[in-house]
Amino acid sequence: MATAQKLPKIINGVAVDDLFNTIDAIKATPAIAKFKFRVHNQWEDAGQNNSTADTFDGAGQKLSRPKAFVLKADEPPVLLGKDTAANPVEHLLHALASCLTTSMVYHAAARGINIEEVESSLEGDIDLHGFLDLDQKVRKGYQGIRVNFKVKADVPDAQLQEIVQLGPGHSPVFDSLVNGVPVSVTAERL
Q1: CB 152 within 8 Å of CB 116
Q2: pLDDT attached to residue 124
Q3: Which portions of the chain are predicted below pLDDT 70?
Q4: CB 43 within 8 A of CB 50
Q5: pTM of the full predicted structure?
Q6: To the nearest 10°, the Cα dihedral for 78, 147, 135, 89?
Q7: How far is CA 5 from the centre of its chain?
Q8: Could you tell me which residues come within 8 angstroms of residue 127 by beta carbon, excluding any fewer than 6 positions away?
């Protein structure tokens, strides 16, 4: 007599059993929760530069992707660039949007909540007086960022708001932005 094979439980594209197995493994061996991500950046010309993401450390090992990812950056012509890619502050908005979305989707899946669609719009305000050192009172970075989600899920409105808050409640990028993170900068000769 054939035994029925248990199909993986997939919610929001997330293998929920694997998610809980990962959580259990981290509880049993806390050291595997430590990750180190890295990029290598190479300047090309004016505002153009590329960052390569390949190796990272995690789960107690050094990991490498089959093919490195290249993230291109540039500036629009009004900021003296050639407009060949999103600029760095747009990359920051993308990092925030994708991390909020992933965090929301994964944590909703862990709670058994099916999400059909997610869209978000982000915008941030920057005053070049800070970047150009024209006014010391104006910060160089974003002065504010606004995020608006549109979510399609078969849940009551109150639960929809709870689902959206899973993103900022668990996102490493959101946490890094709102709570700050120490950054050290060094230099050496090529």
Answers
A1: yes
A2: 98
A3: 1-4
A4: no
A5: 0.93
A6: -50
A7: 35
A8: 135, 138, 139, 143
In angstroms, the CA 83 to CA 14 distance is 36
Give the whole-angstrom CA distance, residue 159 versus residue 187: 49
pLDDT tens track for 102-131: 999 999 999 999 999 999 999 999 999 999
DSSP structure class, residue 140: S
Cβ atoms 85, 153 nearer than 8 A:
no
First to last CA, the chain: 68
- Please give the structure tokens belonging to residue 31: 């050291």
- Output the six-digit token pair for 128: 């070049």
Tokens of 138: 């104006």
Amino acid identity, position 26 = I
Q: Which amino acid is at 114?
A: N
CB count, 10 Å around CB of 107?
20
